[in-house]
Amino acid sequence: MRSRRTVILVLGMGSLLMGLLALQFGWMRALVEARSALFDEQARTALVEVQSILALANATFPPPPEAGFAPTSGPAADSLAVLRAENALQRESAMAVADSLLTIVLRDRGIDFEFRSALLDRYGRPIQLQDEDMDRLERFQEDGYRIPAGDAERLEDVQLYTVYFPRKRLALAGDMWVELTANLLLMIVLVVFTVYAANGLRKAERLNRLKSDLINNMTHELKTPISTIGLAGEALLDEEMSADPENLRYYVQLIRSENKRLGLLVENVLRAAMLDQGELELFRQPINFHDLLKEVLRNQAIHIKKQGGSTSNELTASNPIVEGDRTHLTNVVFNLVDNAIKYGGSDPHLTVRSWNEGGELHVAFQDDGIGIPREHLGKVFDKLYRVPTGNVHDVKGFGLGLSYVQAVMQQHGAEINVVSTAGKGSTFTLVFPQQDTTS
Fold this sequence. Notes:
alpha+beta, Helix Hairpins, four-stranded antiparallel β-sheet
C-alpha cells in the first residue's frame, strides 16, 4: 500500500513538474514572440522614416537597366556599358546613404543590430546585391524588411530596398538574457527539487520497508529465545525432569545460552542507536590484535561447534599491534566470525589470516559459505540491509552488524574490504594503519 502511495506521489510530482515546465516554456516562447513582433514593428517604422527622409532630400534610386536587345560590340555597346556602370555606382551610392540613415534611425530607437541590405525587384530578384550576400538571397526574400526605392512608372520597374538582420534571434535573446536566464534557473531549480523530493520519497519508502522487516525479524528473533526460556523454566518446575542432574544441567545451560542470545540482540540494537546519535566514542590503547582474535575465537568455540563449524588461523603478521578501542574492535571481530558461521552453509569453516604490508596490518576472515551475489556487494554495509537468502528466517539477524563494523573501522581511520563469489564464499579484510616501530 505504501509503495503504491509513493508511486502515485512521484507520478503526481512528475506531472506537476511537467506542467510547470510547459508553462515556463510557453511563457518564454510568448516573451520571445512578443519581443520579435515589437522589433518587426520598430524595423518597419524605421524603414518608413528612412523612406520619408530620402523623399524629402530628393534622393532617388536610378531605374533598373531595361531588358531587351543590347549590342555586343561597337560604339553603342561601349556607351551602354558606361551607362550601366554609372547606373550601378548611383545605386550603390544611394544604398550607402539609405544604410547610413537606417543605422542612425535604428540607434535612436535603441536598436544596434547588424543588418545587410540589397535592392530587389518586385519578384525578389537581385538588382544590387553584395557578393558575400548571394547565399543569403533566400533570407532577404523571406525574412527581409522592404520599402519601395525610386520612382517607377511601370510595375516592372519597381525596386525594393530590402534589409535583412542575420543575427536577429541571437540579438533578441541577448536583449532578454536576464529574463531568459532567470527562467532557465527557475526550471533547473524545479527539476533539481523535484528529483530530490522523488529520491527522498523513494528512500523514505525503502527505510519504512527496512524498518518493517527489522520489526518482523526482531519479533521473530525475540520470540524464539523467550519461548525457549519459558519452556525450559516450566521443565525445571517439573519435579521428575529436574530430578535428573543431566536434565537439570541441560536446561540451565539452555536458559543461559538463550539469555546470552537475547543480550546480543539487544546489544546490536543499542549499537545501531549509538551510531545514529553519533555517540561512538573510542578509548584508544595499544592492542595485540592476535591476542584479541584468539580470545574471540576461544569464546565463540562452543557456538561454532554447536553450528557444526570449525576454524583455523594463519596469523603470520610480525607486528600485530594497533591503536584502538578494545571493546569496539572485539565487537568487530565477533560480528565477522558470527557472520562467517551463520552464512557458512551446512558445514561452515572459517580461516583467519593476518599479515603486514605497506605499513599496515591486514586481517582476513575467509569462509567457504554461500557467498554474496555481485549485485548485493555494494550494499552489505548499509544499515538494516540483509542479503536475500530465500527464507527470511534462514539466517538470524537484523542487518545491523556490518554497518556497525564499517562505522568502527572508519572511526579508527581503518577500512574494511569484501570480496565474494556467490556459492563459493566471502573474504572480509580489515586494514589498519600502523605506526612505524623500527625507529
